[in-house]
Amino acid sequence: MTMSTPAGGKMIMDLEKMGQLNAEGCPACGRKFEMGETVVAACGAWEGGPKFIHENEAVWDDKNKQHVEKQCYQADRATGAR
Fold first, then answer.
1. N or C: which end of the chain has fewer CB within 10 A?
2. Do the Cβ atoms of 69 and 53 come closer than 8 Å?
3. Which residues contact 57 (CB under 8 A, 6 or more apart)?
């Protein structure tokens, strides 16, 4: 799915986005999104580029200026990729 993201890639979940994203749920943790939750566009181990995930499942990678899924970020750091 093509995403339009606000500046910084962060947004508050609304009814329209819930309808678009809850069929799959959060690719980082598998939970469904709820109204009013903060989500971010983040890269991760999935294919197809950034996806919206719960903000608490992401970290900001200052080097690349983007959010990254926590597990992916930790794995990259362990291998020296970041």
1. N
2. yes
3. 26, 28, 29, 42, 69, 70
Of the candidates 80, 79, 20, which has an alpha carbon nearest to the alpha carbon of residue 51? 20
φ/ψ of residue 73, rounded to 5: -60, -45
Kind of pairing, strands 38-43 and 66-69?
Answer: parallel
Contact 36, 15 (CB under 8 A): no
Q: How many whole angstroms separate alpha carbon 21 and alpha carbon 15?
A: 10
Sorted by sequence, the CB contacts under 8 Å of residue 62 that are 6+ apart come out as: none
Please give the structure tokens belonging to residue 26: 């959060």
